[in-house]
Amino acid sequence: MTLTWLGRSFLYVAFAGALGGVAFQLRALRTKRPSFAIPFAVLALLGIAGAVGVMQYALITHDFALAYVAENNATFTPLLYSITGMWSALEGSLLLWSLLLAAITLGVLFYYRREKTDAVVGWAAVVLFGVGAFFSALMMFPADPFLHNPAHVLQGQGPNALLQDNPLVAAHPPLLYLGFVGFTVPFAFAIAMLITGRVHERWPLEQRRWTVLAWGALSVGIILGAWWSYQVLGWGGFWGWDPVENAALLPWLTATAYIHSVIVQDRRGLFRVWNLSLAISTFALTVLGTFFTRSGVLESVHSFSSSTLGPLLIGLFFFTVALGVGLLAWRGDALRSAVGVDQPFSREGLFVANNILFVGFAVVVLLGTVFPLLYEAVNGTQVTVGTPYFATIAAPLSVALLALMALAPLVSWRSASREVLWNRIRLVAWASLAVVALLATLGVRHLAVLVAVFFAAAAAGSALRTLWGVLVAARRRGRLLGALRAPTTGGMVVHLGIVVLAIGIVVSTSYTQRSEVTLASGQSTVVDSQFVTFKGFHVVKDPLETATQLAVEVDGHSLFPAVTTFNGRATTVGTPAIDSNLLRDVYVTFDAVGGNGTTSGAQVQNNLPAGSVVLGVTVEPLLAWLWIGGLMVGLGAGVSFLRRRHVEEPT
Amino acid sequence: MKRRTVLVTSLVVLAVVVAFSVFLGTRQPVTDATDITSPLLGQPAPNFSGTELDGAHWSLRNDLGHVVVVNFWASWCGPCVVEAPNLSTFAWQERHANVDVIGVVFNDTLSAAQGFAAHYGSLYPSILDPGGAIANRYGVVSPPTTFVINAKGRVVVTLVGPVRLSQLNAVLGRVRQ
Amino acid sequence: MKLLRSFGLWVAALVVVFGVALLASANQSSAASRAAHLESLVKCPSCEDLSVAQSNATTAVAVRHEIVADVAAGKSDNQILTSIENAYGTSILLSPPTSGLGVLLWIVPLGVVLALIVVGLRLRRRWR
Fold first, then answer.
1. Chain B residues within 8 A of C111 when measuring between CB atoms
2. FRET label pair with A133: which of A84, A618, B120, C24, CA 20 to 30 Å apart?
3. Which chain B residues are closer than 8 Å to A572 by Cβ?
4. Are residues A326 and A200 in the same domain?
5. In this complex, which chains have at least 3 CB pairs below 8 Å with chain C?
6. B43 phi and psi, to 5 degrees?
7. A325–B25 CB contact, under 8 Å
8. What ipTM, to 2 d.p.?
């Protein structure tokens, strides 16, 4: 009982801190009295940190007095998975979210401690405290992580099998939440600027390096999620256009539009309405995504669910959007800028197209995700909107975005001249064409692949050309390291990462070969020019799991695809094994076993001789490029963070 | 932008968002089968036995101490087709966990039932119900209807409609508490 | 003009390269690729988001066998998909219906393209 009491007390402290922060900040805004914002932020952080500490203590010591621990932990759960068990299910994940939010709130207030009487900072604090109070309230009432477990159990269930299979569970949710929570800050400041009417000030521009860091965390978080799914789910794919996956993609799309659009505001003072709207939309879509993940209204491999949370989260979503729209309508006049986009064929014009494409992409993905609900409400029957639809939409959109990546770095601001552009891009254009011609002669016939590679090569070419220019300029100045901190370096590295990612995606999805082979012990076969040998069975029994492994050799490397039963939950999952190199991934799964073998869980086939196995062998070319591209994107975001402080240009 | 355009656009967006939010807020979490209150709930499960599709004999009494999931199905029933793989997966998943799944053929012929079970890869036994006596005892109006009997022999859940695997798992969790 | 000639040369090369590639890729539809295409449109009955092409679950394998058999028997794509839909229900197809409410799913993306064009034209007009 004490842990429940202790945990809940800490949550009350956190809630009191956030609520107090809101109240005193509002009072300060009205009456110019001190707001004690930082002390309240510290209180909120201490409260949440205490609650997290209690939960971690309970998980690490396997204290089943808490129902959450009994459901997500067992005495034999290893330390790593005990710690990550905090975010394995709904209530605990809210603890992680709130911890990051409280930390970031304090960080922002500390960063602006010298401007603490400024109304914009004040209102932003109100918003940040308000959101913190909302999530704390969720944990105090409908989603209580510290629910007492009335049964005196000596053993817990252990985490969900797929969440204790792979260490990426320690990286994906924290990074993802860091991204989502990070984007609460632009949202808070957008609301603050609209309320105070001071919409021409440079707050979003000053915060750019932090916003880019949040974006980087979100991007890497999503890619790690894809990598994690790839490694554990057993079908060899990395993205299923699952509602929860889409829920994470939607805010990423508007966030990407935002970090690009802010460049134009920085340079020429334009796009204020776009940027405020994008900041508000990103947060709203984050809340909507949380709703999809936690309300259970859409079926998903990834969702946790609770039916009471749904209406509350959708309420927050609605409130956010209504507030944003209302404020934008109210301040509409003040937002008009003195200058406009001079002509469509200019860098500003291309950024407009960029915004429309990203937002359009988000709208279409959102529509596809909720369409089954809509259809069922109208027609009563169920339909599925799956990969074929999303892929058909995503393909041309992605190609258009790659084309923009190829053009924009080389197109001038204000009004571009066709001659100048052609001079800059001519080499890139010919090189891209040469690459395609080479691939076509080497036997690549898929038109979609050739088109994608063409635009990807062009985008890479522009990025490389820009980086080359930066390097040359830095060398001329004698400070080579200065190139790292130049304005466009980080962005171009990210673009290169995206190109690598895009090529990995296009090639692996177009040329994946799936086969099933039946092998007796000691037998070998060749699958898509990969030499596969089945060497025998191997049973692993430890307190955590019982696994029947197959010793398989692929091209000289040993792999152990298995079927694993995790003690505690008594669920059996397939554990794939992957042989990866730069050229291709070979993905091997243990699909079935012959006769009445004493194996734990693999489908028994009666028409196979005992001791033979059926292996699923999937060969996916260039799949590793996805993770390499993801790494480059993360690096690029990091480099962008180090960007030299921008000297204000006269507009 | 003109004041009026801004106002109109804002109102339109607001209206769309209101509709969207209300729509999503009123969706129910996914449940395919409905948990109904049948007269059998809490009562000891009516005993039954029968001949399996491959000729063996099966009796409920042999399953004492196990959780038994009784699924009434028919080869002509559409939703039964949807739920068949879920039941098979569930049966296989729980086969060492003292949970038995037994199908009861509802108002159907032997050959049609055998064909259905073979075609959809049924991983649990099904028994015939000549004259519909078992269905009558259980009050089955139409397939698919699933009853879950706990280890003490009482009917604890009645589901009408095609069951999903997550539903079965959730129900099993409740039964075991 | 030098610009026109230089650019024009490149465009001509582009047309040649992609034209040749297009012609070479035109003879693709064998029975195997037809079956593979159909398999990517049908959801694995006991999975969450996967098509029968992607999953090795028993139910998926069963549907794959059925599709291959139907393709060999000469049935049209539409017939095959309809028969599967009749057996498993409308939600078994991964691609939503294009009629009725499904039209929305194609109108909205077209709307995005339209928005691009309209905004582009309005910016141009403002410039002039």
1. none
2. A84
3. 93
4. yes
5. A, B
6. -85, 155
7. no
8. 0.91
Distance from CA of A598 to the nearest CA of B (A): 13
Residues of chain C contacting A429 with CB distance shorter than 8 Å: 10
Option in B10, B24, B93 nearest A291 (CB): B24
Chain A contact set for B14 (CB, 8 A): 321-322, 325-326
Domain boundaries, chain B: 34-176
Residue A240 touches chain C, beta carbons under 8 Å: yes
The answer to which of A404-413, A451-460, C17-26 has the lowest mean pLDDT is C17-26
* Chain B residues close to C46, C-beta within 8 Å: 85-86, 88-89, 165
Category of C109 on φ-ψ map: left (φ > 0), alpha (ψ -120 to 50) or beta: alpha
pLDDT digits (tens, 9 = 90+) for B50-66: 888 888 888 988 777 88
Q: Which domain holds residue A584?
A: 513-626
**pLDDT at residue A133 in the model:** 97
Burial, B173: exposed, middle or buried (Cβ in 10 Å; 0-12, 13-18, 19+)? exposed
Q: Is the pLDDT of residue A603 over 60?
A: no
Just give the CATH number of B34-176: 3.40.30.10
The dihedral through the CA atoms of B80, B85, B88, B93 has a sign that is negative
pTM: 0.85
Mark whether A460 and A526 lie in a shared domain: no
Cβ atoms < 10 Å from Cβ of A344: 21
What's the gap in Å between the CA of A358 and the closest CA on chain C? 10
Across the interface, whether the CB atoms of B97 and A571 are under 8 A apart is answered no
Asked if A580 is an interface residue toward chain C (Cβ–Cβ < 8 A), one would say no
Instruction: Report residue A651's pLDDT band, with 50, 70 and 90 as the boundaries.
Output: very low
The share of chain A scoring above pLDDT 90, in percent, equals 63
Q: Based on the fold, state whether residues A123 and A2 are members of the same structural domain.
A: yes
Give the total number of structural domains in chain A. 4
Residue ending a domain, among A475, A493, A511, is: A511
At residue A56, φ and ψ (nearest 5 deg) are -65, -40
Residues 6+ apart with CB under 8 A from A85: A59, A69, A72, A73, A77, A92, A159, A163
Q: What is the pLDDT at residue C46?
A: 61
Binned at pLDDT 50, 70 and 90, residue B117 comes out as: confident
Residue in this structure with the two tokens 């079908």, named with its chain if needed: A235
In the sheet with B145-149, reading across from the earlier edge strand, the strands are B34-35, B155-160, B145-149, B67-73, B99-105, B126-127
A13 and A145, same domain (yes or no): yes
| Chains contacting chain B through 3 or more C-beta pairs under 8 A | A, C
β-strand pairing of B99-105 with A513-519: unpaired
B30 touches chain A (CB under 8 A): yes
pLDDT per residue as tens digits for the range A368-411: 999 988 888 888 777 889 999 999 999 999 999 999 999 999 99
pLDDT band (50, 70, 90) for residue A489: very high
Co-location of A215 and A325 in the same domain: yes
What residues are paired with A537 via a beta bridge?
Answer: A550
Give the β-pairing of A545-554 and B34-35. Answer: unpaired
Averaged over A611-623, what is the pLDDT? Answer: 91
- Residues A289, A373, single domain; the answer is yes
Interval C56-108: pLDDT, tens: 766 677 778 888 888 999 889 899 998 887 666 677 889 888 888 889 999 99
A519 and A506: one domain?
no
Looking at the fold, whether A432 and A336 belong to one and the same domain comes out as: no
